[in-house]
Amino acid sequence: MTEFLELETQDAVRMPWNVLPGSKSEAAQCVIPVSAIYTPLKPLPNTPTLPYAPLRCRNCRSVLNPFSIVDFSATKIWICCFCLQRNHFPPSYQSISETNMPAELFPQYTTIEYETPSDKAAMTSPVFLFVIDTCVIEEEIGYLKSSLLQVLGTLPENCLIGLITFGTYVHVHELGFGQIPKVYVFKGSKEVSKDQVLEQMGFFANKPKPTTGVIAGVRDGLSQESISRFLLPASECEFTLNSILEELQRDPWPVPADHRAARCTGTALSVASHLLGICVPGSGARIMAFLGGPSTEGPGAIVSKILSEPIRSHKDLDKDSAPLFHKAVKFYEGLSKQLVHQGHVLDIFACALEQVGLAEIKVASEKTGGLVVLAESFGHSVFKDSLKQVFQSGGNDLGLSSNGIFEINCSKDMKVQGIIGPCASLDKVCFTNISAYLLSGFFRY
C-alpha cells in the first residue's frame, strides 16, 4: 500500500483499482468503474522543469516517457507505449545514450513539466473583474468595501482589475481616467448585446470599426489604449479603485415600501461577460460577483418587484410552478456557453439572509469551474476568510488557475467514457483520447 501512496504523491493521480481488468467479463464484474482522480495543481517540488517542448509520437501525439521503448543504437528511435508507433529522435537528441538519458526517460520522473520560451511569452496577466451589487443596506456595503480594500493590497502588481457596480442600472467604471469618476451606464431592464457594449463604451471612437471578423482583443482590431480604460494593472489603478470603493454608496433609486429593490443581476453579468470577451478573450479572467439579494429586473430575474409575491421555494421548483425559473435558467445557460467559449470563469459570493437565485445562476458557475460562497452577510467570517484565501499566496491558498488544456491519451484497449469537472470539450473526443479546456483549477478531476 505504501508503494501506491508514494506513486500518488509523485504523480497526483488516484485510482480505485491498482490493477486494470484484463477482459470484458472482469470489467463487467467491477462494482466501481475504472477511473482516475487527477490533481493538476498539486505542487511537486522534486519534479524538474525542462526548458524545451515535449517530444510527441507522430501517430497518437503521446509524449516520450519512461515506459517508452528506446533504441540507443545508431538508428536512435523510440517506440510509443500507447500505439507502438516507431519514432525517430530529432537532432537535439542525437547525443543520448544509456548513460546520458534525457530527464523524461528517468524512471522516477513519470510526471514531468515542460516550459518553453514561447510558453513564457504567451503567458498573460490574470484578470479580475469585480461585479458589485449596490442594492443592499449601507452597513453591508461598508463590510464589502472593507473586505475588498484589504484584498486589493495583496494583489500582484501585474494582474488586471476591472469594476462594475449595479442596481437599477449597470455602471461600468473607467479606471483609466483617474482625473474624475467616469462611468458608462446600461439600462438594467433590457438585455445588452456585444455590439451595444462596443458602441456605447466607445471602443472605436477614434478609428473605424472593422466591417468583418470577430472583434475581440488587440489581435482583432482593438487598441491597447481602449482596453486599458477598463482593465488596468493593479499597480496603476490602485488609487482610483480605492477612491471609487471608498465613495461607493447604496443604489440611489427610491424603492417603495411594498416593493423589492430593482436589482439587474443578469444584465450586469452579461455586460461583464461581453467586456471580458471584447478585451481579453482566451485569457485567465474571472468575474467575481458579489450579490446581496434576488434579481428582480431584466433578464435572469427570479421574482417580481412586488413584495407581496413570494420568492419561489423548493416545493415550487419540485412542482414546476416557478414561472420565472426556466426563463432565467435558459438565460444563464447562454451566459455559461459564452464564458466557456471565451475561457473565463464566474465566481459567486452570495451574502444575504434571503435567496439570491443561486438555483438559476449556478449553471454558469458550475460549467466554468467558479467558486460559490454563501454567507449571511458580507461581514460574516465565512465571506471575509474565503475572499482572502482566493488571493492569498502560501500554504493555505486555493491554488487557482484558469484556461488550461487537458488532454488524455490511452492505448487502443482503453475506451474513454468522459470527464467530470469544470471542463469544456474541445470537440476532439474519440475512443482513445479526450481533449478539453480546463477552465478552473479549484476542483480535482
TrEMBL record:
GO terms for biological process: COPII-coated vesicle cargo loading; intracellular protein transport. Pfam families: Sec23_trunk, zf-Sec23_Sec24. GO terms for cellular component: COPII vesicle coat; endoplasmic reticulum exit site; endoplasmic reticulum membrane. It comes from the Eukaryota. Its main location: membrane. It is found in: Cytoplasmic vesicle, COPII-coated vesicle membrane; Endoplasmic reticulum membrane. GO terms for molecular function: GTPase activator activity; zinc ion binding. Residues 54-93 form the Zinc finger Sec23/Sec24-type domain. It is a peripheral membrane protein. Keywords: Cytoplasm, Cytoplasmic vesicle, Endoplasmic reticulum, ER-Golgi transport, Membrane, Metal-binding, Protein transport, Transport, Zinc. Belongs to the SEC23/SEC24 family. SEC23 subfamily. This is Protein transport protein SEC23. It comes from Capsicum baccatum (Peruvian pepper). The lineage of its organism: Eukaryota, Viridiplantae, Streptophyta, Embryophyta, Tracheophyta.
